[in-house]
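Weekly modeling sync, notes
Attendees: S.R. (lead), two postdocs, one rotation student

Agenda item 3: backlog of single-chain predictions. S.R. asked that every request posted to the team notebook include the full sequence so nobody has to chase files. The rotation student volunteered to paste the first one in as an example of the format we agreed on. Action items at the bottom.

Example entry:
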Amino acid sequence: MTQESLSEEQQAKLAEITELAKIAEQKAREMSEFATAIAQKYQQHLSLF
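Predicted structure, as returned to the notebook:
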């Protein structure tokens, strides 16, 4: 079984996709932290009543 190497174009596309995946992961992490902060503030607000 032989393994073909990627062409320069394929390598560039793979690098671009990898970078986009990293950005998406970071944005998802930020959104999760934001949602957690909102939930905590909401819980604090509810505890006042």
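Discussion: group reviewed the output briefly. The CA atoms of residues 8 and 14 lie 10 Å apart.
Action items: rotation student to repeat for the remaining queue; S.R. to check formatting next week.
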